[in-house]
Amino acid sequence: MKYYLAVDVGGTWLRAALYREGESLPAAQRRARTPREGRPEAALAALLQEIWPAEGEVLGIGVACPGPLDPRRGVVFATPNIPAWRDFPLADYLRQTFGVPVAIDNDANLAALGEWRYGAGRGHHHVLYLTISTGIGAGVIVADRLLHGARGLAAELGHITVVPDGPLCGCGQRGHLEALASGTAIARQAEEALARGEPSILATQPRPLTAAQVAQAAQAHDALAQRIFTQAAEHLGRALAGFLHIFNPSIVILGGGVVQAGEILLRPLEATLRASVMTPAYLDGLTLTTAQLGDDAGLLGALALTRASHPANQATK
Amino acid sequence: MKYYLAVDVGGTWLRAALYREGESLPAAQRRARTPREGRPEAALAALLQEIWPAEGEVLGIGVACPGPLDPRRGVVFATPNIPAWRDFPLADYLRQTFGVPVAIDNDANLAALGEWRYGAGRGHHHVLYLTISTGIGAGVIVADRLLHGARGLAAELGHITVVPDGPLCGCGQRGHLEALASGTAIARQAEEALARGEPSILATQPRPLTAAQVAQAAQAHDALAQRIFTQAAEHLGRALAGFLHIFNPSIVILGGGVVQAGEILLRPLEATLRASVMTPAYLDGLTLTTAQLGDDAGLLGALALTRASHPANQATK
Asked: Can you tell me the distance from the alpha carbon of A270 to that of A248, in angstroms, rounded to the nearest whole number?
């Protein structure tokens, strides 16, 4: 029997899964809390050891990790909540520990790859995947290949300026899409409005507010919460129109926790998108949908990555 | 002897050139005024007939044409200044007339392809080409392939929103990069400032103003003209930072008439770009340069296209 292993490095959980060759349901999986200190790579190796098959051959390990990282050299420059990994050669470490090929990429790219191979994007050749969560991440499939750019830094679609000199973004710049429409931005806008004294059922909620609380308030017809979601959706819809002009994908897949707000986000987003394209040709045959793989997108993306990296599968890419 | 033919369809001129296989200096070239009426395709065919080689074999014809068009089917949906071409099957027409393979793409894509194969972008694998002229066009090379998207409508980088509800764009939307930083936008902003009574040496110039006049005034230290160029450059620099985050190219090539304004545009553009990237990693090893092929970019891009389309050269792509 031949196997692949997939790893999803998260700020809270390390997850690992074992897949038989040709299958996408795990034969085994395990998780452990991400260590804040010490050597998180050792915890990761221990997790892989636990599910390592007793017999047979492991063809490769795929790793999804929050960026920024260099997918070619397998080096993690920095990753949220794992301060120990600074310019850390994670791929080399796992390769030397286990003696099998290791492929690594950032979690948004691999979520896109996972949705393309196993989820909402199956059969498409030009895929735009956007995850709206604490931040806004993305992965883009261009003509059946993940968009990486010269140094693996491409597809940061959350970091385009949508309002010149707008609110501060997590990256240090101003007015980025992420600073106006991420979960963090939605929560911040609600906090700011409450601080200005605007009436809202959110005023009685536990603080600091989360985007999920704002979504609940919007669903309960709270005017402030609805306005904040509508504005975020309009920024997303306009930016998405730009992304259609840039990439002309046949499918847009929206993932991440904020998308679970549902219609209060998706209806104004789609209306703005329709009103903002240059010509309706960009919408012809376009599928706009939500992600299917949920929390497993990173693992399945890592599986797709290590499979695609295997020499026997290169020709099929 | 084997040959390729290249055609550049412009709003003013139709140009055609004959190239020997393996060469990029034309063995013959000819141009004719673009007919406003009648059958422009017949004028194009006559031009090709004039330079058709007396002996030897023509391996293919490449055609650069202002979009929107479908590069796969070779159909021109509409093209500026040639009202007769509405959903016109230009590739089929030329194929049937001359009995050789015909490949077609829009002029901005082919200028990018030309600069990549024969000009400023040689040796790069990830190229961003932006032409700032009447409008703002673009072509993008992603991992050695021209970015087309699902229906050939990709790479319209001039049509992203940079100022929500900003000035009207030629495409009908508002606040696009093209509406704030194209030659048309620069001239319009100068006209508007003069209409408001702002003092400027432009007030005594022949009207309507052109971007070239505004550039000359800026070079002569006219405060209004300088401010307009600086603002356009800042919009371009911020948008370009976003394009670096999206594509992570190793080279950015700026073409088009407005770029000939030189330092008054390029200095503030580069300063804004440097200040607007998320991390300096996007600038590491990045070349920012101007186009090399000038008016020949379309012809040489059409040559590169027909060469790449030839079965014998498919493997080298």
From this structure: 16
